[in-house]
Design goal:
Length: 307
């Protein structure tokens, strides 16, 4: 049995900080940020939290997939920015959705979090334990950012994305995932501190590891890069996406991007982008998609799914 995405949802807070706004906070400029990252603005949660954003994205995904909340059997939430440690964000989401039948837990794999949660959902579905799973990525990274550090404050934004998976006998799915804790100091955040990043090291890691794991995945499925309709990557940096396209020798138009609007929303980035693609009518039945996530840990991976 394979989990098929039947519904998607996304939410971004209405308040945003543009590159011009950040010019008044740190020594930077709109041109400098755009050239190095592709980001123009990022949404900031003022009244929202990781929970409220997750609930809004989840409600949209359930409505989009025509799934009653009480039919959901498992809720997985990926986040590094929960409102509180206990209870977990997934349980708070369950309470507000009224998904009373669902088992709930959170997962932390940073910017690879949605991908890891998606793979976890697929494993539960394949085992036959659950047939209807809600997977959410939600982040309030603005509270973890040092707004005096121009190397990080320009990158991150807040938001949430969600997908509903339902088990089906026919479908296509495979995955690959890796972690290397020896290189974890490249991107860190203490529970009592702020995000710190070695930007050059993270860039080198991403442009090398992402194409490698995608090739590994395609070899497992005996597919070529040209067989994939779209590569839906974690939205961290436009330069990273462009470097991956060159290493895979795939046209840039098959790598959709929305980071200009949202910045890096960590585990929310893939489901937000996926929802926008669905809403625009880009996704058609039978299309082959590759999701790829990468981030702190260091952790990275890729998954193949058929729309």
């Amino acid at each position: 049995m394979v989990g098929r995405i039947c519904g998607t949802g996304a939410y971004a807070p209405p308040v945003f900080a543009s590159n011009e706004d950040l010019e008044n906070v740190v020594d930077t400029s709109d041109t400098w940020i755009r050239e190095r990252t592709g980001i123009a603005r990022r949404h900031i949660a003022v009244e929202d939290t990781a929970v409220t954003m997750a609930v809004k994205a989840a409600r949209q995904a359930l409505a989009n997939g025509k799934i009653d909340p009480e039919a959901v059997e498992l809720i997985l939430v990926s986040t590094i920015s929960p409102e509180r440690v206990l209870p977990c964000t997934a349980c708070e989401v369950q309470k507000q959705l009224g998904a009373v039948q669902a088992v709930c837990f959170d997962l932390n794999a940073a910017c690879a979090g949605f991908l890891y949660a998606y793979n976890t959902a697929q494993a539960y579905i394949r085992s036959g334990m659950y047939k209807t799973v809600l997977v959410i990525g939600t982040e309030q990274l603005s509270k973890l950012v040092d707004w005096t550090d121009r190397n990080t404050c320009i990158l991150f934004g807040d938001g949430a994305g969600a997908v509903v998976l339902t088990g089906e006998e026919n479908g296509r799915y495979n995955m690959t995932a890796h972690s290397d804790g020896r290189k974890g100091e490249a991107l860190t955040c203490r529970t009592d501190g702020k995000i710190k990043m070695d930007g050059r090291e993270v860039f080198r890691f991403a442009v090398k590891s992402v194409p490698e794991c995608i090739r590994e995945l395609l070899e497992r499925e005996q597919l070529l890069a040209e067989d994939i309709d779209y590569f839906v990557l974690h939205q961290a940096n436009r330069r990273i996406v462009e470097a991956v396209t060159k290493r895979l020798n795939v046209p840039l138009e098959r790598f959709p991007m929305n980071l200009e609007e949202y910045g890096n929303t960590s585990s929310a980035s893939i489901p937000i982008l996926l929802h926008e693609m669905k809403q625009k009518g880009i996704l058609k039945p039978g299309m082959k998609l590759v999701f790829a996530g990468f981030g702190a840990g260091l952790s990275w991976g890729a998954s193949l799914t058929e729309w």
